[in-house]
Request: fold
Amino acid sequence: MRPSFQSSLTLAAFIAVLSGQAIAQEVNVYSSRHYDSDAAIYEKFTEETGITVNRIEAKADELIARLEAEGDNSPADVLLTVDVGRIARAEEAGVLQPVTSDVIAERVPAHLRHPGNLWFGLSQRARIIFYAKDRVENPPQTYEDLAKPEWQGKVCIRSSSNIYNQSLLASLIATHGEEGAKDWAASIVDNMARPPQGGDTDQLRGLVSGECDVVVANHYYFLRAFDKDVKGLTDGVENVGWVWPNQDDRGVHVNLATAAMTKASPNSEEAIQLLEFLTSDYAQQIFANNNNEYPAVTGATGDEDTERLGEYKPDTTTNTAAFSENAKAAQAIFNQVGWD
Reply:
């Protein structure tokens, strides 16, 4: 009788089983995280499990397009992105599958997970307010304050195409509704010191150079100026103050680096093992220490550099899934108010 290959075993693996050989285990990762430090996580995972991690790095949109093109024949098991907006695009493309894991459910707070278990947060990235100490005596204390007339011509912020700003506006839609968010976005356009240009570091440079008095940026772009010489920022970094927005109500807006299992995963058991390992204290500390991010796991050890920013209350009332649910509405609002 001829053997049936209805199981997940390949022909080579089936022959290996018949001959008593061990089957090599592997997991294939598509990652838009371009950090050498992640390699240490994979090496530790392989050391503890014997599972080899194969990694392909590219921009998230490229990886998602690749998953779509590969379809059911994709070799990818895990997809990693640096923001919720990109993982939402993967969700919309139908290239993810739910993961049932008691470990992940226990380790990662509910508001940092997709309600249908399609993805979860690896690390947190706070989008906060920075200001020039020598020019601003009473900085805005909330995202809503940034829209006040007193900040007209004083705000630097990135373009509407930036995924961090899209997620921020999506969170404001969840809080204030589309009309309220539209009013906010229109006021921010009125308050811009210059047309949006460059990345978060460029906004902070604008603060140091005097082009603007108030900036919205992710926290780690600021902290990098203490670890290395960032041109146009490090020399003036001591004059930069910061505010954790909305500490008296919902808390600061936090985006996420995320992880998910792909729909076509050929190594699903190994994929779940890796995803669970990414929530371990070891992995969480690597995420925190090497990019000045905050762990997604409650109680995990943070980074010494982030301690200089002090403690903060994150927004735990707005599920991060709302960022993807409101993404299209956010982009429509940006277009309507002329936020380039």
